[in-house]
């Protein structure tokens, strides 16, 4: 027969008290799942935000159209460009409605990488005559084609920064669908038809008589973007190379965020996520401690006996440490797996643009934390038990247990045990209170966590719908003419039906809108950067207003240019536009529309 | 030769009402190889005395000497080692480790000492106690008598010099109790172990070399002292 070892004791404990340990393990796993799950969730949210931002906008900070080698050289010198990649616009494609078309580009591999050209169906074009379209573009052009189909489109041939006057018909094979970007970028800055949403292979060449327009995707150094002087430098650069007049550059979030999107910044949500995770982990640590305390008395008694037999303190630590280690080694992987898939599922259920991004660093931290947590939770109370003389521990436990089973106010009892049991009761009362407090805190924190998650999600994801379609004039510079702004435009019930026919559209919701363009004479920093020079566009859509320097004068300007006679009747305003008090604040969009006698529609659609 | 001695031993338990003197100024000594029975009514402090003598509890006052050496100088580690090498314990409620088989329980003190078991000696114990066919069972599968015999085997597995027994037959029926008792007597005699046993069964006590009677934490009768004074 074999000699027992420390392992025999540790494993023996696990083996013979299966039920107790099963309960304990379930408790520990629950606590761990709670903590690592929340970590996964928060890391998914924060990583998701970043990745989605890149997915929707590309990695570049800015896109220039029609750059020359000299301009680029100057840019590299004066703007601290860290990376750039090239593509070429070959022309402008459209089906029936010219305004719903898109530039078609041939991209270098690096450019596609920077632009985050992501094939979501089919493949990227490899041969001449093949084309891939952004989902968005396919819908906008009302193409009812699937991958593999031939499509015939009108092509305005690129001629440098212009187009040739004649339009040709071109037939392509649709090889793939690309994830949307154009609309996201267009929404986060100023819309431009130059931004390509159609891609052809590198074998494609510009049509006879034309000349490709260079697209340059540019990344600036982080230090450059952080520095406030970057706006002046950029402005000077645009001006000296006449990008302002041409409206031929597009910016990406990092420049835009502080201006167009308020003060939101990615690192804040990361920090929130980290703090949240730590808090949740601490809470679940309490859960683990509690799970261990479930059979604390039994263990304390066992320790008493083992000590009576001459087990030293170190040996006790060894035996129970091994047991705790085994427990944590069982619980940790199980709970990590559960929370991994659980979070994945949860993210799927929450849906939207949220994506599951398990952070492996977080995973390792979570695992280490869980193991440490289990070990401490298991060992601290037991270590304390070893401090009491061995038999005293056993007797105390026996005594309190006996007293619990008897009526406390029996006269025959010794007063000591009575008191002892009383003390025990107040002790357990204290613990009950502590546990309830912890539970409440737990609920509060997780509530706050979900609220924060919701906030982070809303703040970044909901800002941009899945999809957005403007029918009618959708280019910024076509709005610079107020005559155009007065023209009727929008989505008719018929066109809604049309859009719904497209295989990519799940539903359409939206409201009527009107874009107005206002001329102002005092440009803000942000406006200085706008393509339009001194024009701003204010889109009265769903509370979106990207421009804050909207003064009373601007407002009056609009009235004048729209030839509205009765100023008194105009009680209007977009909620997000700062109007003078006299003219009413935060009045409904409808009032605005009525007052301005504006018509036109705006549609928002969700993509499957 | 005095193997164990206590001088002015006092043990007090704190309670809200005040202090309970479970042992009240007891001075005693035990000879090597002696069989001593401690009797007295329930609550008189028998167990407390046994626990304090064997370093399972810390006395409030007084001093204990093992082989003439004061245990006051011993730290917790040294006391643990003393217990597992020199003392054996048999309790009323057996106190076997439920997770270990009979054999593993017997070897537990040896394992704690990181020694190689003396196979011959262990086999002899097993033979004397007649538990050879019960060794691979967990305690829960054993009868009370069998468990107590395993406990006795465990208590003497390390060849202790003193065996402390606290009502070892208290949980057993009359016949099994008598069997266990004679085994205890036999093994302690056979292996030259001092046996200090708490019992409130007078017929058991009468078999001892010496009977101590406790009341309210005080020795009210000591047959050895009586014999000496005669
Ligand atoms: N752990 C303890 N805490 C407080 N009082 C105790 C404890 N153990 C024993 N006592 C008290 O000490 C006295 C003696 O107990 P004990 O030695 O167990 O008596 P006996 O073994 O003779 O029945 C009793 O009054 C008992 O209530
Ligand atoms: Mg007793």
> How many individual domains of chain A?
3
From the helix content, strand content and strand pairing of chain A, which structural class follows?
alpha+beta
Q: Going across the major beta sheet of chain A, what is the strand order?
A: 2-3-8-5-7-6
**Broad shape of chain A:** elongated
As a percent range, the share of helical residues of chain A equals 40-55%
Protein architecture, described:
The complex is a heterodimer of chains A (608) and B (230). Chain A has 608 residues and is an alpha+beta fold. Chain A contains 22 helices and 15 strands. In chain A, the strands form three sheets. Chain A has a six-stranded mixed β-barrel. In chain A, strand 2 and strand 3 (102-107) form a beta hairpin. In chain A, helix 11 packs parallel to helix 14 (360-387) and helix 12 (296-308) packs across helix 14 (360-387). The longest helix of chain A has 48 residues, at 415-462. Chain A starts with 5 loop residues before the first helix and ends with a strand. In chain A, 39% of the residues are buried. Chain B is an alpha/beta fold. Chain B has one domain: P-loop containing nucleotide triphosphate hydrolases (Rossmann fold, 3-Layer(aba) Sandwich). Chain B has helices at 46-53, 76-86, 102-112, 119-129, 144-156, 174-190, 202-205, 223-229, and strands spanning 2-15, 18-31, 35-39, 61-66, 69-70, 87-90, 162-166, 194-198, 210-215, 218-222. In chain B, strands 6-7-8-3-9-10 form a six-stranded mixed β-sheet, with helices on both faces. In chain B, a hairpin with a 2-residue loop joins strand 9 (210-215) and strand 10 (218-222). The model of chain B has no long low-confidence stretch (mean pLDDT 90). Classes of the chains: A alpha+beta (608), B alpha/beta (230). At the A-B interface, helix 1, helix 12, helix 13, helix 15 and helix 16 of A face helix 2 and helix 3 of B. The site of magnesium ion (MG) has 2 residues of chain B, from helix 1.
């Amino acid at each position: 027969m074999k000699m027992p070892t420390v392992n025999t004791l540790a494993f023996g404990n696990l083996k013979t008290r299966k039920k107790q340990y099963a309960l304990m393990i379930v408790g520990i796993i629950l606590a761990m799942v709670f903590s690592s799950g929340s970590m996964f969730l928060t890391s998914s949210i924060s990583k998701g935000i970043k990745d989605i931002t890149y997915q929707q906008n590309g990695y570049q900070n800015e896109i220039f159209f029609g750059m020359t080698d000299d301009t680029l050289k100057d840019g590299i010198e004066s703007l601290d460009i860290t990376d750039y990649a090239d593509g070429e616009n070959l022309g402008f494609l459209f089906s029936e409605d010219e305004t719903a078309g898109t530039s078609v580009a041939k991209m270098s591999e690096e450019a596609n990488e920077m632009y985050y050209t992501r094939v979501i169906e089919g493949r990227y074009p490899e041969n001449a005559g093949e084309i891939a379209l952004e989902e968005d573009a396919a819908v906008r052009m009302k193409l009812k084609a699937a991958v593999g189909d031939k499509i015939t489109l009108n092509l305005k041939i690129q001629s440098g920064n212009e187009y040739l006057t004649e339009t040709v018909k071109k037939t392509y094979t649709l090889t793939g669908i690309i994830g949307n970007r154009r609309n996201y970028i267009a929404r986060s800055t100023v819309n431009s038809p130059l931004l390509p949403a159609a891609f052809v292979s590198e074998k494609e060449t510009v049509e006879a008589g034309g000349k490709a327009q260079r697209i340059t995707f540019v990344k600036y150094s982080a230090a450059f973007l952080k520095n406030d002087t970057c706006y002046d430098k950029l402005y000077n650069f645009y001006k000296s190379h006449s990008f302002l007049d041409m409206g031929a550059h597009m910016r990406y979030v990092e420049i835009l965020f502080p201006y167009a999107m308020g003060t939101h910044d990615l690192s804040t949500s990361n920090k929130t996520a980290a703090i949240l995770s730590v808090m949740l982990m601490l809470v679940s640590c309490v859960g683990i401690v509690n799970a261990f305390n479930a059979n604390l008395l039994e263990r304390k008694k066992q320790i008493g006996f083992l000590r009576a037999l001459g087990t030293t303190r170190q040996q006790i630590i060894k035996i129970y440490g091994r047991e705790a280690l085994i427990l944590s080694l069982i619980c940790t992987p199980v709970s990590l797996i559960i929370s991994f898939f659980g979070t994945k599922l949860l993210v799927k259920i929450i849906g939207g643009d949220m994506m599951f991004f398990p952070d492996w660093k977080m995973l390792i931290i979570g695992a280490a934390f869980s193991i440490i947590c289990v070990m401490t939770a298991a060992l601290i109370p037991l270590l304390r038990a070893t401090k009491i003389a061995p038999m005293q521990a056993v007797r105390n436990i026996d005594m309190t247990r006996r007293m619990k089973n008897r009526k406390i106010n029996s006269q025959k009892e010794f007063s000591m045990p009575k008191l002892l049991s009383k003390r025990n009761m107040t002790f357990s009362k204290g613990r009950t209170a502590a546990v309830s407090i912890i539970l409440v805190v737990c609920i509060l924190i997780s509530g706050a966590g979900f609220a924060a998650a919701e906030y982070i999600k809303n703040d970044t994801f909901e800002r941009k719908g899945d999809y957005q379609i403007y029918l009618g004039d959708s280019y910024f510079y076509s709005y610079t003419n107020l005559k155009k702004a007065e023209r009727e435009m929008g989505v008719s019930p018929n066109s809604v039906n049309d859009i719904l026919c497209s295989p990519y559209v799940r539903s359409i919701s939206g409201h009527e809108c009107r874009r107005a363009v206002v001329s102002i004479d005092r440009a803000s920093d942000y406006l200085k950067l706008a393509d339009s020079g001194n024009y701003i566009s204010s889109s009265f859509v769903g509370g979106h207003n990207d421009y804050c320097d909207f003064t009373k004068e601007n407002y009056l300007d609009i009235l004048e240019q729209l030839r509205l006679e009765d100023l008194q009747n105009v009680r209007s305003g977009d909620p997000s536009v700062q109007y003078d008090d006299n003219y009413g604040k935060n009045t409904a969009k409808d009032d605005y529309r009525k007052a301005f006698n504006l018509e036109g529609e705006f549609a928002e659609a969700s993509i499957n | 030769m005095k193997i164990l001695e206590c001088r002015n031993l006092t043990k007090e338990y704190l309670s809200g009402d005040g202090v309970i003197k479970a042992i009240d100024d007891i001075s005693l000594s035990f000879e090597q190889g002696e069989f001593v029975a401690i009797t007295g009514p329930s609550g008189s402090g028998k167990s407390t005395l046994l626990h304090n003598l064997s370093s399972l509890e810390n006395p409030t006052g007084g001093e204990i000497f093992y082989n003439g050496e004061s245990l006051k100088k011993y730290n917790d580690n040294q006391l643990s080692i003393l217990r597992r090498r020199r003392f054996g314990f048999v309790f009323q409620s057996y106190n076997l480790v439920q997770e270990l088989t009979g054999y593993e329980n017997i070897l537990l003190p040896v394992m704690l000492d990181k020694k190689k078991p003396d196979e011959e000696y262990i086999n002899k114990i097993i033979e004397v106690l007649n538990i050879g066919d019960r060794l691979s069972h967990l305690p829960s599968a054993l009868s009370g008598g069998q468990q107590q015999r395993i406990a006795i085997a465990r208590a003497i597995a390390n060849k202790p010099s003193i065996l402390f027994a606290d009502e070892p037959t208290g949980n057993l029926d009359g016949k099994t109790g008598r069997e266990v008792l004679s085994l205890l007597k036999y093994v302690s005699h056979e292996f030259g172990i001092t046996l200090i046993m708490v019992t409130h069964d007078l017929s058991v006590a009468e078999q001892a070399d010496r009977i101590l009677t406790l009341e309210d934490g005080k020795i009210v009768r000591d047959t050895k002292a009586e014999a000496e004074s005669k």
